[in-house]
Amino acid sequence: MSLVDLSNELAIGIDIGGTNTKFGLVNHRGQILTQGDIPTDKTPDIEDYIEDLFNALQPEIVKAGNKPVRGIGVGAPNGNYYTGTIDYAPNLPWRGVVPLAKLIGDRFNLPCTLTNDANAAAVGEMMYGAARGMKDFIMITLGTGVGSGIVANGQLIYGHDGFAGELGHTVIRPGGRPHWSTEINGSLEAYCSATGIAITARELREHYPDSTLNNYKSEEINSKVVFECADKGDEAARETFRFTGQLLGEALANFIMFSSPEAIILFGGVINAGDYIMKPTREHMEKNLLPIFQNKVKLVFSELKEADAAILGASALVWEAK
Predict the structure, then answer these.
(1) Which residues in 137-160 are b (16+ Cβ under 10 Å) and which e?
(2) Which of 63, 95, 107, 236 lies 20 to 30 angstroms, CA to CA, from 286?
(3) 33 near 26, Cβ under 8 Å?
(4) Predicted TM-score (pTM) of this structure
């Protein structure tokens, strides 16, 4: 019987975004040995896209030499872990239900595991990042939208149909701000994403005539501009983050009382606002918890580099696959 050196194996991580697809070859230690990308939005035909992906990745696999590739993990919007399909993703060029895992697996002749991008991030954090050794945590990604992954008893929660964990679309203000895409009123994403922060800043600056935010055109205001203004002492910008942190903290309190996690891992550009958003988040989280939950749950920043996290998260699916 020959021995197999598992530490020598590699995993392919693929992150599919609306504009670009990133990929990389990753080892057991979470080191990305090689990476690249191809456009997502330039290939409306899925077969052409798969071929482009194969042509970009195959030379990298060959370069890896005698290191065996264990499999492929894919994180994608509306990715369904159970079926391996992307289901009606609004920001991808392929319509309907796309059997992506099968198409990729057949073309590469490798097992392929698919889930949504936030779930992939949670698995990556558990394997390579701040959640190492944790069996109960919630991953919240705060970027253009709000994504999430829930881990309980060491297992990612997929639900009966593969779509569990859409905490960003839970309603935190009934009858509140309409979401620009789902049209649901008062969802977490409508307020606490980078997009939501920009909307709040545009609304609040009207009540602060001296705010430097009034020097910007409406379309120029984004979460980065709001942070820069807050850092210079602008009251409207600071109130934007205080209000956002309050709503985020209230929502996190609900999530904690639902699954009693050891920690909430926060990831994404929004957390770069630091104490402007994190102080009110912690304050309102604790304020809205029952005493049995108070001062138990850590708020932790992701340890994964933002540029690498999507690839690492997708690759981690390979090691998790049974």
Answers:
(1) bbbbbbbbbbbbbbbeeeebebee
(2) 236
(3) yes
(4) 0.91
